[in-house]
Design brief:
Elements (H helix, E strand, L loop, with lengths): L1 H52 L10 H18 L5 H4 L2 H13 L3 H14 L21
Helix pairs in contact: 1-2, 1-4, 4-5
């Protein structure tokens, strides 16, 4: 009888752990979808900006500035809600490569510098060697 109780306990615990993992995967998927939607929405804001700036003959129902402000609010909420260790896995370098030019369209230096700083913090580049270092042509060794 005791073995049956232990077996049931482990089975119930196993189901609970699996349910927690599934919920975690669902939450992860929800965040990924939010980031994807944000990226697309920022792209739309950039297109609306071009329509307005160049007075293109395209009918739009939203103002570029309104969409952009909404996107930046969403970005800040998402970014701050994620633990620091997880941010890079959701806000990938491609995200920043596509949205930073759009943010720069709106001439808001604080948002542009924030996005660039976040990109650099999450996806640092290795330092490039100084090309002038070896121009002198002298033979030498590095210690």
């Amino acid at each position: 009888m005791k073995k049956l109780v232990y077996l049931l306990s482990f089975t119930v615990l196993g189901v609970q752990v699996a349910a927690q993992e599934k919920r975690s995967n669902r939450e992860q998927m929800a965040i990924e979808v939010q980031v994807d939607m944000l990226q697309h929405r920022l792209g739309i804001a950039g297109d609306l900006y071009k329509v307005q700036k160049y007075q293109l003959p395209v009918q739009v129902t939203e103002k570029a500035e309104t969409v952009f402000a909404s996107c930046m609010e969403t970005y800040k909420q998402l970014y701050t809600s994620l633990p620091e260790a997880e941010r890079a896995s959701f806000f990938k370098e491609d995200f920043y490569i596509s949205v930073i030019p759009v943010v720069q369209y709106f001439r808001t230096p604080e948002y542009a510098s924030m996005m660039i700083a976040h990109k650099n913090a999450l996806h640092p580049r290795p330092e490039a060697p100084d090309p002038k270092h070896h121009e002198a042509g002298g033979d030498h060794t590095h210690n």
